[in-house]
Amino acid sequence: MIKDVVVNLSAADSEDVLSNLAISVANLFEAHLSGIAFAYQPEFPTVGYGEIPTKYIDEMVAESRQRAAASIDAFNEATRRAGLSASSRQVEIDIRSSGDAFARIARNFDLSIVRQVERGHATASDSIPEVTLLGSGRPVLIVPFIQKGNLKLDRVTVCWDGSRTAARAVADALPFLTRAAAVDVLIVEDQYVKSDEVHGANIGHHLARHGLKPEVRRVVAREIDIASAILSYAAETSTSLIVMGGYGHSRVRELILGGATRGILTSMTVPVLMSH
């Protein structure tokens, strides 16, 4: 059950799209929606740059606060027009801590919504998707930076490999799956395997017991990686939401993601619900 959703509003130039999609999710589940915008405190190296003028630092802080406040104002107006139960908060934080901070916040919600990092357009919030996935303990809905409209559930593709994280993702995605017009269970393999057992049949039966009618699909990817196979399938079938487990771990401040997870986060073209 999804009744409490949080969205990160700190990604540059994406507030309208992200807010509108988050509002569509909250409306779908009749959930409360919280918006978080970070105002960043800049950090400078202490060696080799001399003393940074206080006026320059103050201007950077003021600009960051203004951007966060503008995001909050736009979010508040959008949720008001939608007649949605909502709240918002502006949080001041040092620039390196936004991922950890949002992950901690997300632990208090059923679902968090974040934006995909846009290649070539670095922002202070770039660590948020990965750190939230690995550190929140909650499902994360990641929205591609090319997203144009609200969340649709015409066809949901569940990526299944029998792993713990895949099982967790299926369980977390059930509120979405039960509202989907069609559900595919996608199994990506690197070679044909002859077997009397239909791989994925058990998870298909499990979903059927929840009232779903999933189609189990098997794709053999010999010459492309798993992420590319998933995205190709999504494009061919007009998938509107991908569900998958997110693999990886953190070591000190270094994030180490699995190849498929990294590939999807980099090249996704539709929203992806991930669980770790």
Question: Looking at this structure, what is the CATH superfamily of the largest domain?
Answer: HUPs
CATH topology group of the largest domain: Rossmann fold
Q: What are the low-pLDDT stretches, counting only 5+ consecutive residues below 50?
A: none
Helix/strand class = alpha/beta
Q: What form results from the Cα inertia axes?
A: globular
What is the percent of helical residues? Answer: 25-40%
- Compute the CA-based radius of gyration: 20 Å
- What's the number of extended β-strand segments? 12
Distance between the termini: 18 Å
What is the average of the pLDDT values? Answer: 88
Number of helices: 8
| Total of domains | 2
Major sheet? 10 strands, mixed
Question: What order do the strands of the largest sheet run in, or round the barrel if closed?
Answer: 3-2-1-4-5-12-9-6-7-8
Q: What proportion strand?
A: 15-25%
- CATH C-level class of the largest domain is Alpha Beta
Assembly type? single chain
Write a brief caption for the model.
Helix content is 37%, strand content 24%.
What does this structure look like?
The protein has helices at 15-29, 54-82, 98-106, 128-135, 164-177, 201-208, 226-236, 259-267; strands spanning 4-8, 32-41, 86-94, 111-115, 140-143, 156-159, 183-189, 215-220, 241-245, 248-251, 254-257, 272-275. The protein is α/β, with parallel strands linked by helices and 276 residues long. It folds into two domains: 4-143, HUPs (Rossmann fold, 3-Layer(aba) Sandwich); 156-275, Rossmann fold (3-Layer(aba) Sandwich). The strands form two sheets. A ten-stranded mixed β-sheet has the order 3-2-1-4-5-12-9-6-7-8, sandwiched between helices. It has a two-stranded antiparallel ribbon with strand order 10-11. Helix 3 (98-106) crosses helix 4. The longest helix has 29 residues, at 54-82. The two termini are 18 Å apart. The mean pLDDT is 88.
